[in-house]
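Handout, page 2. Input:
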Amino acid sequence: MLVAVAGIVLVLTYPNLPSLEVLTDYRPKIPLRVYTADSHLIGEFGEERRAVVRIEEVPDIMKQAILSAEDERFYQHGGVDTLGVLRAAYFNLIGGGKRQGASTITQQVAKNFFLSSEKTYSRKFYEALLSFKIEHNLAKDQILELYINQIFLGQRAYGFGAAAQIYFGKPLKDLSVAEAAMLAGLPKAPSAYNPVVNPKRARLRQQYVLRRMHELGFIDAKQHEDALKQALVVKRDASEFAVHAEFVAEMARQIAAEQFPDDVYTRGLRVYTTILKADQEAAYASVRRGVFDYDRRHGYRGAEAYLDMKDVTSDQDETLDELLQDISSTEDLQPAVVLQADTKLVRAYRRGGELVTMSGDGLKFAARMIDEKAPPNKRLRRGALIRVQKDDKGNWLIVQMPEAEAAFMAVDPQTGSVRALIGGFDFNRSKFNHATQAWRQPGSSFKPFIYSASLEKGFTPASIVHDDPIVFPASVTGSQAWEPKNYDGKYEGAMRMRTALAKSKNMVSIRLLQAIGVQYAQDYITHFGFEAEKHPPYLTMALGAGSVTPWQMVSAYAIFANGGYRIQPYIVHQIQDEKKQILAQAQPEPAGNENLLAIDPRNAYVMDSMLRDVTIYGTAARASATLKRRDLAGKTGTTNDHVDAWFCGYQQTVAACSWIGFDQPKNLGNGETGGSAALPTWIGYMAKVLKDVPESFMPQPEGLVAVDAPGHGKGPAKELFFKENVPAEVPPAPPEDETSKPVD
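Output:
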């Protein structure tokens, strides 16, 4: 009777099972992906992170690990493993404890695509019927492929392709036996066996999978032993990609979301940016080195915080991982809690279970905070939260998370394509994009635009201007008396304009602006893309007292680099759909188009000549000396009270700008200038991207005349003049103060 009823139910139910079209025409939600111009993945956005793979792309070791963990008889049963069900029932009957399940891979596919997760007999019956139908209509490899791509594996990873990238930073084909076993253990309980959240439980599950692989003959004894010994390096930050370009990826996401708001995160859009992997990595490394160097110059600040150690019973207590779980980290600044500290040795527990020891050179930076005389709220003692880092020799060092911020941006001055962009020291710490959003005073890095304006008013590089103290009474300023000073407090009297720019003489810039008129200058700087209202028409404009962003500054300097043409920086080159059909394409207007001419090409050429002097014998002489080339041009910038430090400059093929400062503006420290704090980052980047680029110089446009310019100094023997401004005789340059070192 019971069998008859079951048969009737089966006959009535089977025809009403859902269509398998969702399986045969598999269309998973594919996230938005962002790439460099040379096709390296830099970002992925969507609720489900996926990397769909074909079954033939899945290595045998991954398939074997999955079968060992989930369904060893997958290729033998017809959808429901009767032997597995009986075995589970037996163990559940005699075990009296944790219950065993017996879902096959096919049943899991049925559940994931069609059913809820409720545990009732009716749902299990429905699941079994669906499994039979799936097995009847699809080949085993098709079913396994669906499972491999659809199963949830924690960290927003759906499918083993995505999980391999998220947990280990590599494609499936590169996984080791140990890594494959770790991933294969996840489907049973993605949260409980997540190696990021629960490394010890994940390890136990991995050991079980490896044992089953050995018992089933998929690996031999040596492979089993080697896999157990392998120390796995699990990525703790699921947003890490091969290229450090988080700010760029976020910009690209916003652009794509504006154009395709309805399904931007599910249809598999591919956004190709303009950045180049080599350039971006060079910028990232140089920015971090620059910030680290600045931070070290100002000493160790002590423990970040103190963690409650009362429940910690041993140096390997799981509680230690829990204490460190919510501490933000960056790739090379790992959080750790001090277990023992004295002036000769510090032992600490690093998140993930590693005990690290620092001694000798590893303690030098933090030495003053280990001493008993250190402030009690900063001293390194048991429970102190610190950062640790490995040096080039593999030794652990105590370091710290820098407080300063930085930005860097590089563009092709001919097209405006952004080659590299760093929006801050660490995207996970602050998503505020300093390259595009930070309005800061440019200081002396703004002077070239005042000098450019003065050339249009008849001044020349040979013009004599006085570098003498100057005082403006309240009746002139409209508020209070103003007594500007040179950065170093030294004054050299009369000097050529070329020399004044190289040495960044404030008094000369002010006198130039006074001579040409602040209203004229305010209008003229808009040719470079600056907003007039951000630069009030006062003489303080000569010292860069207005507001700019690094994006604006690099755009403006590109005009000097390309001979006078305005370019519009852009960061997204192309957007494609899931079938790689082009949906949107950038249409940049290259330099050379007469409609884009921002300043007289003669002006750009003369300014290029003067800005190259800045890098040869002026405030940025370190650039040419380090890179051993004379085709570099640019200007340092340091604002009042050392709040912002800049260097903006270019070579004919690339324009770039470096900035360093604090989010809440404050003094960077005495001696921290554009030349010492920002220029090294620019040099570090240029050293990489110009390595195989030959020297090149701008062709001289018509309408310029070179005339002998006798005198002192390090400038050229001939000086450049607009043909309408050529003097009857160039007066000798005043003698320079050779003891005055250009600093800015």
